[in-house]
């Protein structure tokens, strides 16, 4: 039995509202064990003997059936998430800045987004490549209107990426 981190994209922020108790119940009913949620933004820890790809498929199918929306999730194991957090290349406690990790399930999309690095205003934001993630640092108040923020919001990336604050990831691992 492995412990998996399942990151849901776009719930409780854009019209898709799911109570965490309902989310836990749906995933437990689907056969996952020890289902726990962290915060109300789609961060789930659960147990399963399935592979990461099978957990992704089962979770997405369960969410679509239980909540009536096309669900997109990123699945990783706990050691991988820990390594991602520990490898954050910027100062996660930098005053006035947000520390983010962009997770992706399509490496070509992460590569496309990574190519924006040279075009970004370093006084406003910067990105760095990680292991199947992008690290992003952006001034507070500019997350959604920065060049990178606007790019990650494009429909093209909706089904393959999700972004989390490093502080949230630390809470997931606690």
Provide a concise account of the structure shown.
Helices cover 35% and strands 28% of the residues. With 174 residues, the protein is of the alpha+beta class.
Report on this structure:
This is DUF1697 domain-containing protein. It holds the Pfam family DUF1697. The protein has seven helices and eight strands; from the N terminus they run E-H-E-E-H-E-H-E-H-E-E-H-H-E-H. The chain is α+β, with helices and mostly antiparallel strands and 174 residues long. Helix 3 (78-86) crosses helix 7.
Shape: globular
What's the Cα radius of gyration?
A: 16 Å
Helix count equals 7
CATH topology of the largest domain: Alpha-Beta Plaits
Reported for the largest beta sheet, the result is: 4 strands, antiparallel
Q: Helix coverage percent of residues?
A: 25-40%
The CATH architecture name of the largest domain reads: 2-Layer Sandwich
In the residues, how many domains can be counted? 2
CATH class of the largest domain: Alpha Beta
Mean pLDDT: 93
Please provide the count of β strands.
8
Element-level helix/strand string = EHEEHEHEHEEHHEH
Strand-pairing-aware structural class: alpha+beta
Strand order in the sheet with the most strands: 2-3-1-4
Pfam families: DUF1697
Organism: Rhodococcoides yunnanense
Protein name: DUF1697 domain-containing protein
InterPro entries: DUF1697 (IPR012545)
């Amino acid at each position: 039995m492995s412990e998996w981190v399942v990151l849901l994209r776009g719930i409780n922020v854009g019209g898709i509202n799911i109570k965490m108790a309902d989310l836990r119940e749906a995933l437990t009913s689907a056969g996952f064990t020890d289902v726990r949620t962290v915060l109300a933004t789609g961060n789930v820890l659960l147990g399963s003997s399935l592979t990461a790809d099978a957990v992704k498929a089962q979770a997405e199918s369960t969410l679509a059936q239980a909540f009536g929306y096309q669900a997109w999730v990123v699945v990783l194991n706990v050691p991988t998430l820990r390594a991602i957090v520990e490898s954050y290349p910027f100062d996660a406690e930098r005053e006035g800045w947000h520390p983010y990790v962009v997770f992706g399930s399509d490496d070509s999309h992460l590569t496309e987004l990574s190519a924006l690095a040279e075009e970004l205003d370093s006084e406003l934001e910067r990105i760095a490549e990680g292991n199947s993630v992008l690290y992003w640092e952006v001034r507070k108040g500019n997350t959604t209107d920065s060049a990178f923020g606007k790019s990650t919001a494009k429909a093209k990336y909706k089904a393959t990426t999700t972004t989390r604050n490093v502080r949230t990831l630390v809470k997931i691992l606690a």
